[in-house]
Amino acid sequence: MVRSCVSCGSSFEILDEDLSFYDSVSPTFAGTKHPIPSPKLCPDCRFQRRLMFRNDRYLYHRKSSLSDRQIVSIYSPEKLFAVYDQDEWWNDRWNAMDYAMEIDFKKPFLEQLQELRLVVPRISLFTIGSENSYYTNHALFMKNCYLIFGGGNSEDCMFGNYVSFSKDVFDGLCLYSCERCYEGVASQRCYDCTFFTNCRDCTSCLMVEDCQSCSNCIECFGLYRKEYCIFNQPVGKEEFEKYRKELGNLTPRTIAQLRQRLGELKSTVPHRGSHIYGSENCTGDAIYNSKNCKHCFDVTDCEDSKYLAFTPKGINSYDGTFTSPDGLEFCYNVVSTVGTKYSMCTFLAWYGSSVYYSLECHSCHDIFGCVGLRNARYCILNREYTKDEYERALSKIVTAMEERGEWGEFFPPSMCPYGYNETNANDYFPLAKEEALTRGWKWREELEQQSYLGPQPEIPENITEVDEGICDRILICEVSGKPYKIIPQELEFYREMGLPIPRRCFDQRHRDRFSRRNPRKLWKRSCRKCGTELQTTYAPERPEAVYCESCYLKEVY
Prior knowledge:
By secondary structure, this protein is of the alpha/beta class. The protein is built from twelve helices and 40 strands. The protein has a domain of about 50 residues. A hairpin with a 6-residue loop joins strand 5 and strand 6. The longest helix has 18 residues. The model has no long low-confidence stretch (mean pLDDT about 95).
């Protein structure tokens, strides 16, 4: 079946296996099965809609609605709903059931859910078990971390997204088990590496990409188990060390030259069609130890799933995003949902089952249209029912949602509390303000203010010439004109690593890292070597020579 997306108009395919999945997760209430229909939106638009409900990086000062003390929150101060600090939200001084609403069967259910969501207090940040890491979000068990968004179990890390099990990592994106690294993207188990992308098990490498088990390499691409290489050529320890000594402390000019040379090298060598390791019958990118997973990105230990992203342990699930660390089973259309089974259309549902159209609910079972509940069961709009009452009411609610074409669809953008430019959606699907507003989506004006592109404060190129006074100055981003500061821990790291003071603010550096990674989208291409059709994140018009897995392995290994 081929369908046109009701949002972007593009065509997308719905296979028999997809219909079987939707049927398998369709719930039964009061003896009536309510089939989940095939989606109206294409996979990209579904992904975009889920991302619109998550704000990782934009933090604001505001006052707690409970204690009136100054706090940091993902919700800007002009938003009028109640926001509690983390310790306040998790304590027993309030109960989300106190905000319970009666079902009005004459009104659209999602309108009632939005009314409930606007009165139930929200948590300021989503962090658990962290120490000295207040300025983090969607982060678990962090220690001494600052502006790390997503990930967990990391220590002494700053400025990054999705950084897990790492230490002394600055400016990273999608890093796992890395240490003493800077400007790494989509890499695992690397040590003492700088400016690296799609690398695994590398040590002391500079400006490298798609390298595995390499050490002491500079300006290299696509190497396996090599050491002392420059521009993909083995040069021996003595010549390598001489070249590295000549480079000395890195400067912005040196970094630009190294990046240009790497780009020249990349244009001459084959590229791996996708980064899939230890997996069977999978398509997508950054897939590890998985089986029968299609159109998946950044997934590990997943099976029989489709359209997952940033998911470990996803089993028999579709359209799930950000489900670390404990994944999900038999779920559909969920985001930031962890350890949950048989659930659909949820945001921040942790460790529960049979949770539908609910937000920020934890350890709950058999709930529908609830907000902020903990350890609850058989609840609708935060009101508790008997099992029979619950199922009878649900059958009636779902029948009405089916008639309106809402059943199975994720929350509409009108329920999103952020401006589009505050959300993760703008990372993957960047839009201009006018386009977002034309679609009827919100936009936060203040993010576009406070820009200055006049004369810049002079910053020494070599870190040895930078004194502690840099931490007292306001610097101006050379791209966006936004002000930013250098903090003492940051300066110490740059000195230790021989790195220059960044000329760009954190937000711009984040965008730069995103640009070094291929889109989370698949295109059909032919292997440049053997002609076999493959699915890859390299668009057909791009000039890279893309090889299938078999040809690439023969070439590199």
